[in-house]
Amino acid sequence: MESQNINHEDEKIIINQELNIWEALIPVIALVGLLAYNVFVFGDSALGGSNQFILIIGAAIAAIVGFKNKVSYKSMVEEVAQNLKSTTGAILILLMVGALAGTWLVSGIIPTMIYYGLDILNPTIFLAACVIICAVISVATGSSWTTSATVGIALIGIAGALGISPGMTAGAVLSGAYFGDKLSPLSDTTNLAPAMAGTDLFTHIRYMTYTTVPTIIVTLLFFIILGFTNDTTGAADVSQYQGAIDATFNTTPWLFIVPIAVIAMIVKKISPLIALLAGTLLAAVFALVFQPDLVLAVSGMKEWSFEAGYKGIMNAITVKTTVNPISDNPKIVEELAGLFEGKGMESMLGTIWLIICAMVFGGVMDAIGALSRISKSLLNLFSSVFGLFFSTVASCIAINFTASDQYLALVVPGKMYEKAYREKGLAPENLSRTLEDSGTVTSVLIPWNTCGAYHSGTLGVSVLDYAIYAMFSWLSPIMTLIFAAFSIKIKQLVTKTPTLDTIGEE
Fold it and tell me: 3, exposed or middle or buried, with CB in 10 Å at 0-12, 13-18, 19+?
């Protein structure tokens, strides 16, 4: 995920002794029930606004529980304000992703990626290749968000041309992207987890490879098998797709300069927001140079002028734009029309709306002490080493679900469980690895979590459609529990004599 410039080590965990576990769970149960019914009624259109209102209702229920337990309205509003402040970076990035997607379409960058991608990526290896490509980019950039917004969008387009399900493709893209998000030393979550657990960055990364490498291998095998068994319809029409793309856009390898420049800036640790803005502006220049006729068409004006160029670029940046493909085949025109749609900043407003409402719910839940109560109760449920790992995983997933924020899913359990791991004689890297295996990767599986909302909005695929295929994300917590159950690579603190409860191996 992208850095939001918050000192997470200074975040406070609010503990409310007045609140019991059943009261803490009331808003969660109500939210789940209301969201389930809302999705049943509205289906895929639930994210159009009704789910957002349900999150506000959930926050209101949490506030009522808070009032009963002597939590002031002012403290709730302050915590909500802090939560909303923490999403400032995410909201700005979402707006810039919309702008970038629009200019990358009008400039021909995304169509060119699709054009050359059809030469390289055949349907059989496509899904596995998506995992590998996105893993490499994410490790290099440290950002699943940037990976999704650049190569992820292009791969979704190629999948459409090959007749491959966008849900499968998004699952493969995000599996690779979150592999890099976990392991890259440039990733903020990779730095945050060891800081919370009390270990150093590279010890944490080395220790994570024990569970992460087997998980990505199983994920790759899954997508290889899926590629061989998946029935695709687009392979035979590749030349027709390429012909239509070539007739509509000026496809040239020079256009790859823009995505390469953006990725290079991220690798050089330039702020992702600045890199995306630079990518948007650079693509706008390339659009004027390589696609002047398309810019004129997007402007809605009849003759080329400075005003027409300015209006065309601003339309691509701000509102949804569509480029009409040129082909004699109506089927090709229809299918490419769905790919050649620029998002623009306007199209991201629904996702931003969802994030704001989710942060209201998460802020109230934190203010009333529900998050800490849920984590504490899970911690008290188990006394064995496996139970400690299980309760950590459950806490991370629960907070991703209730607080709607990936960072809180690392910060709250990290602070709550650090002492418990130490008392069991377990090295801190056990905790940091478990935080990442369950907190970092599962955030993308929850529609109202900032990560789920972002990737769904960026890739244009609903969370419900890609969740089952995002194998790396849901297999990671299972893998860490398997290692705990069989005491595989469970490192001990050298200062404590092992007991029957803390038997494990380095």
Answer: buried
